[in-house]
Amino acid sequence: MKSMNSLERCMAVLNGEMPDVLPVVPQCFMLAVETAGMKISDVNRNGRKMAEAHIISQEKYGYDGCVIDFDDASIAEAVGAKVIYREDEPAIVDEEQPVLKDLRDVYDMPIPDPASSGRLNEWLEATRTLSDAIGDHVFIMGRADQGPFSIACLLRGTTQFMMDLLTEEKQLIDDVLEYCRKVSAVFAKAQKDAGAHVTSIGDALAGPNLISPDMYRQFAFLPEQKLTKEVQDYGIPFSIHICGNTNDIIQDMGKTGAKILEVDWMLDIKEARKLVPENVVLMGNIDPSNPLVIGKPSDVDHAVKKLIEDTKGKSLIVSSGCAMGRNTPPENFRAFIEAARRYGSYEEIMKLRNL
Fold this sequence. Notes:
It is a single chain. The chain has helices spanning about 5-15, 30-35, 40-45, 45-60, 75-80, 120-135, 150-155, 160-165, 170-195, 215-235, 250-255, 270-275, 295-310, 330-345, 345-350, and strands at about 65-70, 85, 90-95, 140-145, 200, 240, 260-265, 280-285, 315-320. The chain has one domain (about 5-350): TIM Barrel (Alpha-Beta Barrel), CATH 3.20.20.210. Helix 2 (about 30-35) crosses helix 4 (about 45-60). The model has no long low-confidence stretch (mean pLDDT about 100). It is globular. It has about 350 residues and is α/β, with parallel strands linked by helices. It is built from 15 helices and nine strands.
């Protein structure tokens, strides 16, 4: 098979084709910032600097794609949430000062303009800068911050929203989630316009770490499904990332229609590969803590080998299960990428599939 560049191999996987080697698209924005000699506080209001960090990191390590991410607070901030900025860690929403003091306040909430609301344009500036600089040969995933359920939690306060789910009328809850879905869709489509090859959301608060699988199906699934359709109808593949052990909802996630599901290390990916449609790409799922931070390069090598064996490399983008820490040892990051190149080559995948 002829050699592909990074963008070509990522797009081959998305198109259901065999790449020359499985692509590596790590969730490494914090590590990229560290690699560039910066702090999160240097980049969280500066998209060009964030792009610069990604360019430096990608050129140093040679992975196939950059995931544009700043924090989990930007959409909420763009519609009025108070945000706590930290020097070396991503910003967080101050949930002690909720935007939605009453759920009914949602009917007066604005839809943000990604070009001018809060820091959303900084995310887009990072995407534009990367697209111009390396987007002809490197894959760019322009994340659109949080998904509908998580946005609702951040605007109302997570604990209070959990209470609301039990005490408020279903129609009101649905109206809140529909507002949050619209906000998410506007930002996701703006990422396409900025030059991203794929856009995505994180919807961690919709996962089993916080709510039951039944509650996911009752409240979070339909907004994600509707969001997916709107964004993909706009002409860009869509990805959903839910942290934690999603074994009990992975089949539902596969029914959202999202082209990519970003899965965490707690998921049984061998079983997940059987439960979601063959044309849905799984992206993951190496533990960002052990082995990537506290393990040895040999541990990383073993984990990547097992991941590829468990999935037989089918519709797979090799990645970390969640955001990689800025303290990830460089030797472990190199081992991560080298293992994917070694065990994920076309020849090795053909052997795994007995072809």
